Amino acid sequence: ADLLLLSTSEPNGLCYVETAELDGETNLKCRQALPETAELGDKIELLANFDGTRLNTPNNNLVKFEGVLKWRSQKFSLDNEKMLLRGCRLRNTKWCFGVVIFAGRDTKLVQNSGKTILKRTSLDRLLNILILGIVLFLIIMCLFCTIACGVWETLTGQYFRIYLPWDKIVPKDPTSGATIISILVFFSYAIVLNTVVPISLYVSVEIIRFFHSLWINWDIKMFHEQTDTPAKARTTTLNEELGQIKYIFSDKTGTLTQNIMTFNKCSIMGVHYGDILNDKGEAIEITEATASVDFSANVLYEKKFKFYDQNLLDEVKEGNEDVHEFFRLLAICHTVMCEEKDGTLEYQAQSPDEAALTSAARNFGFIFKSRTPTSITIEELGRTQIYELLDILDFNNVRKRMSVIVRKDGKIKLYCKGADSMIFERMDPSCVDLQQITVEHLNKFASEGLRTLCLANKEIDEQIYREWKIKLNDASCSLENREDKVDACYEEIEKNLFLIGATAIEDKLQDGVPQTIANLALAGIKLWVLTGDKQETAINIGYSCQLLSDDMNEVFIIEGWDFDQVRNELLQSRDSISNNLNQRNTANNRNCSVITFQDDIVSQQQAVNATMPQPNNTNPKSIHQPSPQTTCNAQDELNEFGGFALVINGHSLIHALDSKLEMLFLDVASSCKAVICCRVTPLQKAMVVDLVKRHKKAVTLAIGDGANDVSMIKTAHIGVGISGQEGMQAVLSSDFSIAQFRFLERLLLVHGRWSYLRMCKFLQYFFYKNFAFTLCNLWYAFFCGFSAQTLFDPVFISFYNVFYTSLPVLAMGIFDQDVDEIFSIRFPLLYTPGLADLLFNKLVFLKSVAHGIITSFILFFISYGAFKNAVGPEGINLDGHQIFGTVVSTILVIVVTAQVKIFDSLSIKIALDTSYWTVFNHIVIWGSLAFYFSLTLLINSNFIGNQYLGCFRMTLSSGQFWFTMIIIVIILLFPVIAIRFYNITVHPTLSDRCRIRQRYLRKKALTQPYDPYVRRKSSSAFRSRRSIRSGYAFAHQEGFGHLITSGKIMRKTQGYNLHVPSNHLSPAILYDALEGSYHSTGTGTTRASKTRHTQSGHGNISAKASNPQQSGSGFIVNRNRIQPVQQSLHYHYYHRNANSKKTLERN
């Protein structure tokens, strides 16, 4: 039951609860009884003596409760802070008393236990359609056999009825008799041919998915040691969908960033603190080696707290009242709970921001010590101060601020902190000059990617407060529109505030985020960031994680407040994209996709080609290159097209998601490389995901770490939860959970791609073997008068799909790999076949069916021709039904088992090589054949005895059988081997090239240990420049943010102008197979044409090599990241005249 808390064993009616079962959050939450009931303690008679309660109706909102308690002729407001919900666990409380409010189905736990939406993969939906098609095909075959049976009975069969006891069923009239027999035959053939319907398919699919989930759970490379958190597949039905993701929708805070907040800088009464200045007054870079401020004079300081500006601590020590008021506000205005353990203070905060600010005040000498329902105790520079707590005006997503009202020494003060827009709107007019200075500081903080809050206070007259308090009590006791009435009261008191300053909190990017986003972009996956942060902060994070770049042609910012403004801005964006594309296509006179960035296919294929062993007799024309119609020159692409980005605010998104504008918004957004939606609510996040799901034929993935991400996680095809600082609710609602965003790269590019590849291969083989098996009975119908006689032994029919052919294909579906994990991450374009459903679709299904039909046709009729009127060496007749069925079944098992290898073929020389052999593969393939021969011999032996007695022994002793088997195997397998040999040799895919390269490296033992998660840190210069290019957090006036809002982000740079694809090229493979090196310095230009780059430029270029006369003609096979900044850039490429690698370095 849900209880209203009345009293507890703790002072002031406090108790602590853990709500992990409700919302997944493991941090303790405080609940507090009314003071009037808390003082009654455990006196049950008094506790039960109240007049009653008035409550709102039961609902599923875990954070909202409204009610009124009537006691002693008074009304007391009830809210969620006084409730103990079913599913909570009491902590640090000996006992408590409460009254039952809701029970059974009315409790919030049960109200939230709604119907679970079952997510299905696109392959599942396709299979459902294909199964219906197979059933229709079965009906057609049965109808054909029915008609054929009727014709045969009319022409021939009537002469044989005299020998059959059918008088009671079949009329003697030839026509009527044929009709009845053919109708009966329809149902008989429905039974004989039912094996074409893959009844065991779904069982096999679930087994494969279960093992795929285990591979994810057991992957040590997705284990996060710092938090002791492994990756976890929370469902076993969506694994292959991970290999088909086209759109990723990501939260920012805690997902892309660490959500570990640190107090970094601040502005107090127009004075900026936090930077270290040199003799010229310029800010210098702060590194790990920079000495931090010494706080050891404060007994309760935190060793992990770092701050580098000594001036702020000096101001505190010198008694600057403005600085004191700044930290006093941080120590009072919060909802943090304080616990003392082993002589140390521990803070329990509802948000990392609040914990960081309270911690900062603590280290600067304003220490929050404890709280009661009516007081807050802090220690100000060693002096204990107790403030009477009058009211807490709590934070929510609409207010975007919180305030506390306290009384000290007879004075009532309101302390407020919140978003700058909310504070500035309520600021006293006398603070205009201070506001302008503070805005400049806010702009600077935002340019460094910091999260900001503004602080303000005011004194309240005693009489004004009393009148306001009466209004607040009346609003709090209202059962209708309580929230609106309470918010109106808050608005009334939060006016004419006096600005104190602003805080800047750093939330660093998680490790590997930029590289992960880059690799996912190369894989053809688009990332949309949906965040509640302001526009400028979101843009800055976009640059930090390289979602946005200076290479982009234009960044469109949609920030209209009404429908018409948003529509006009979207139309202008669409027109701008169209004009850019038209100009580019006209200038270059070629047809190139600028949205899919197909140039990277050429680049990555060239990277593999560069590392391929080339025999002396290799024909260069045999290397397949994509046609000019589908690809463009990679190096010219950067100059002419860098892509577009879209940034849209939450208030604009309301109109963009309107049914009249949603398609226009989607067209513009889907034409952009990057989309950032800022200031969005959880509902808007889900609506954006749903929009793409409804109108794009693409698989979506949503990833987040907080409760505000649950809606989009549930809406997307795949939901990924990150176990972070905001509890476990996102994880509990997700399909897969990981500890860091960077693990998403491995989850998709390795496990997702492998799962999709394995499942597609399995389905191709499964349908192939089913049709090859079933159609043999159809061909036999022509020779048995369409009497529904089966060709095979009933035991063989029962065991075919269960024992003889199931395990080899299961092993392939569980263990197969085309390339290893290193190549999967180094070459993200290997992921792209899943985006277009290339490996299994209706066409591939029809090819597998046709392959199975052809196999059955050749197998049946060659065997029939070989054994018709055949006689054994001892004069035994070999053309009987039993022997013929045994021959066909034996060759069938051998052929379909051999096809497992064909489906896994990779070698350019031996088509039967398997992609990834394990011991289990050997066991099941050879074991299945051995099991078939052993079991068949046993069943056809004298020990058991049946109608097939001795048939198998006579078959194996017959020369016709072995000759027929060899002929059929050659005829069936040779064309498949030849076609695949031709494709791999003449038209190899990127996957083929990677497999060959991988095999070459293994043979030469040249592979080196490779960790795809080792990331190169950006230089300080890179961070500095990128910050200048980005926006300013929480700024609302024109600053140098016009660099972004102007829509032209391009900036020309000096030095090397590297003409390469707009997004990243994959790292090269062959570092270890090269000998010799070049080191060139200077100023120049590296340009490219097709597959070769020619270095040209001006200035002195020096070469340190054994042969400095060699020309610089070659092609790039490696680049980590192109950024036109002051830093070292390394490129490895091959020379035509030497087997060497060259490094261009610019400092």
Could you characterize the architecture of this molecule?
Mg(2+) binds at residues 251, 253, 705, 709. It holds the Pfam family Cation_ATPase. Residues 1096-1113 have a biased composition (Polar residues). With 1147 residues, this protein is of the alpha+beta class. Among the domains are: 2-111, no CATH class; 193-202 and 746-1004, Calcium-transporting ATPase, transmembrane domain, CATH 1.20.1110; 262-506, Calcium-transporting ATPase, cytoplasmic domain N (3-Layer(aba) Sandwich), CATH 3.40.1110.10; 1054-1144, no CATH class. It is 41% helix and 17% strand. It has a nine-stranded mixed beta sheet with strand order 10-29-28-27-11-23-26-25-24, sandwiched between helices. It has a nine-stranded antiparallel beta sheet with strand order 13-12-22-21-20-19-18-17-16, with helices on both faces. It has a five-stranded mixed beta sheet with strand order 30-32-33-34-35. The chain is elongated. Mean pLDDT is 76; it is low at 589-603, 609-640, 904-914 and 1009-1147.
Offer a few descriptive terms.
single chain; 1147 residues; alpha+beta; Calcium-transporting ATPase, transmembrane domain; Calcium-transporting ATPase, cytoplasmic domain N; 36 strands; 41% helix; 17% strand; elongated; ATPase-coupled intramembrane lipid transporter activity; transmembrane; HAD-like_sf
